[in-house]
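hi!! sorry for the late reply, been swamped w classes. u asked for the two structures so here they r. pasted raw, havent cleaned anything up. first the sequence of the first protein and right below it the tokens
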Amino acid sequence: MSDQYRPGDDLPPGPPPTAAAKLVFGERMAAAAASRRQFFAKWHTLPKPARWAIGALGMAFLYFLPVVEPPIITTPDTNFASLLAGSVVVYVIVALGLNVVVGMAGLLDLGYVGFYAVGAYTVAVVGSAHANLPWLLCLPIAVAVSMLSGVLLGAPTLRLRGDYLAIVTLGFGEIIRLLAERFDWLGAKQGFSGIKAPPKIGPIEFGVLDSKSYYWLGLTMVVIIYILLSRIERSRVGRAWTAIREDEDAAELMGVPTFKFKLWAFAIGAGVGGMAGVLYASKQNYVAPDSFQLKVSILFLAAVVLGGPGNMPGVVIGAVVVSYLPERFRFLDTSRYMWFGVALVVMMIFRPQGLWPRRQHGRRGEPPAADPPPFEDVKEGDPDLEGGAHGAATPA
């Protein structure tokens, strides 16, 4: 009876709620991770033609997704094709670009929405407001201007690290928005409307209501960007980014020009963000400063962190989750954002490395022997002790 708890006694010490929850769900998470490893092990044993065929079928399903509208994932309160074209593919492109900066190079960027805005405003200015260039020419111009803005931001600031760099990038995002709001040449507060659309491709037209066409265009851009960034990640540039992310000082001591490669990361990430801005502006047919607030940049960063920084498949999944879930639960009205935030917090507690973290590459050493070798004492007359057999000096 003395061991039982009585009112007024101090409670025995126990694990904190987070640790207790991890204890409860840790087994399931470990089982899920093990089954995922088994799946990928079996996947890599398949012949290459079979993997290409499965990948082609998966891509065909994605292209037909707005046509099929599966009842499980469709959004009853929102046009499904419009959600895919105006939000999901845009977030995926943005997340892939931000992953170059945050995930691959390890640079914290809180103002990535600035590059997104530069791309959107560039296509509005050169395509409709102050010029009449074709859309196919506006796209590379917007990407080039976004990359130039990344270089102009990175050149004086990439000597900074950590929180200081994050504060500078945060200021950049706000400066871009305030400049667009201040100058009439950039549309001021009312913004621009009537933005040029992509040209017609056979039977595919790009009107305001042609959401499926914009989804197909955006998905094609995602595939191209994914392939290009995968090639860069496996190149010398990608290895330099990995070294900088893991330990910048050690990378610099080993001869890696860290500043140059960080500038490359900023420029490439800015170019991809500008491309997403072009797609967004063309689909919405309207841009205004209110579309590029700080909260949008935080959502972009949340997509990368939630998916798994440094791993492009995980980043894609994170972008889909961040852009899709609030609309899927629109029936909850304004409280859906609260529940979305709760889901993000819970995910970060149980999966802090992201939904699909990057793989840790390394060489495993040989496992230690079960029993250490027996110790043999040195005896008198042993050649190791007295020399001779092992080349010890002998008296003349």
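now the second protein. again sequence first, tokens right under
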Amino acid sequence: MNKAVAITNTNNSIYTSTRVLHRTLERRQLIPEHEQVLWKIQSGSVRALTWDENGVYTTLGYWGVGDIVGYSLSRVQPYHLECISGVELASIPSENLHENLDQLLSRIQQTEELVSIVKSKRVSTRIWQFLIWLSDKFGRDLEDGRLIDLHITHQEIADVLNTTRVTVTRVLRDLEDEGKLRRHKRWLIIRA
């Protein structure tokens, strides 16, 4: 009979149950590098990122509840998986990987969508399409639109879309003036 083993430290908590590893991480923590472990996000949000020789970051994707992440899913180096909120993860035992093919296919499709958005010529189009992409992935419906349930700064949007924070702020203001976007505190609400 398999018994659960509990291990706890000050940075995060881990516990195993049969052959599934569970991990709880805090905002801004990195998911530890385990090449052979794939994680299913139970709660929270994660971003995949890399950086160049000058230390300039490139966001490769945003992942949320139900998505699968892991270092073995990328050949990009350097590569980190950073928690952008508190995150709960469960490992996927290799014998159960076939049960998660839909999530893996969805990951590929979402990555292709993001690449397509980043390659749009007009910055305003890039920003609007990225907001729609985020609302599809992290949104929840409200009476007057779709709230993007993800804390993302103007600088982080600029970094993903290869533009400046000032440009992002200007375009968001323009979208708000056009009635396509509403801001509520730090939240964005799409009104498409």
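hope this helps!! also noticed smth abt the second:
The helical segments are 101-118, 123-138, 154-161, 165-177.
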